[in-house]
Amino acid sequence: MMATNPYELPSVPQVWQPADLEQAWEAKQALGDDGRFAAGGTLLRTQWESGLVPMPRHLISLEGIASMRGVYALYTAGASELHIGALTTLSDGAQHALIERQAPALTEACKRIAAPSVRRQGTLGGNVLSQVGDSIPALLVNDATLVWYQGSGWTEQLLNDWLEQKKKDPAPERKILSHLMLNTTEWGLDGEKGLQKFVKVGRREAFTASVVTVALAMSDVPRKNGSLKYIRLAVGGGASPVIRLTEAEQLLLDKPLSGKLLGQIHSSIQAQWPAAHDAFASSDYRKLAAANVLVAELWKLLKSSSS
């Protein structure tokens, strides 16, 4: 008797429920482009219902894979990392004490994404894989690394590098995002307690899609010359690309914090970010809003350090 493929394409959509990463990978290899990984599925469902993408003939559900859940800290000599499973729901991300203590910008981002019902189902991994998720700026300022599973083992990739890669190849990932690692050492440099902030600007107060999302992480005690010891700035919003504002960061590392420097930062943010234009907000409005929010937070630091 001829052997049959257990993943042979059915006449109606079918859901596969692998018990571990190995089984999930095997299913994807067998199904190819006809199979799509899914967990919370909130974004995928919205895309299917709106006709933006076709529903695949097979869904590979990752929800039963225990190794993709959990939050824990890993401490080594002089360094600390926060590991977050890709299946961590946005609701759990908004409430987890360890995330709030070590990556408070991410806690705030999770609180501000969509409605409570969506946060209870949607996952952090899915929000990242959308490439425009509101959590991404908060992850970027924590130097997040993506940990992928691809059959023979795991590979690590900086989130910032992956975002740059996806600009050239936006196709859905064939690898499985297992978890995220956040570098929680630097923003509390030399034992000092740093500052983190996440701000979302929407079209109304509650449950709205973002116009602009910004995040920053920085040391709250300047160097002797007035410049910052550590700074990370990131911005996104709507369908705009999410990026690190590396040019503005370098200015803050090189020069003493001052009113004049903040004016340069304001211009730098607008020049570096290629914000999207849509029916809700122009590119120029998004750029101006992002620059205003970030400079306002830096101004607060300047006033507090001079008082």
TrEMBL record:
Keyword Flavoprotein: yes
Keywords, alphabetical: FAD, Flavoprotein, Oxidoreductase
Gene3D superfamilies given in the database record: 3.30.465.10, CO dehydrogenase flavoprotein, C-terminal domain (3.30.390.50), Uridine Diphospho-n-acetylenolpyruvylglucosamine Reductase, domain 2 (3.30.43.10)
GO molecular function: FAD binding; oxidoreductase activity
Keyword Ion transport found: no
UniProt cross-references to InterPro entries, sorted A to Z: CO_DH_flav_C (IPR005107), CO_DH_flav_C_dom_sf (IPR036683), Diverse_Substr_Oxidored (IPR051312), FAD-bd_PCMH (IPR016166), FAD-bd_PCMH-like_sf (IPR036318), FAD-bd_PCMH_sub1 (IPR016167), FAD-bd_PCMH_sub2 (IPR016169), Mopterin_DH_FAD-bd (IPR002346)
Residue ranges occupied by any FAD-binding PCMH-type domain in the UniProt entry: 8-187
Pfam families listed in its UniProt record: CO_deh_flav_C, FAD_binding_5
Name by which UniProt lists this protein: FAD-binding PCMH-type domain-containing protein
Species of the source: Paenibacillus rigui
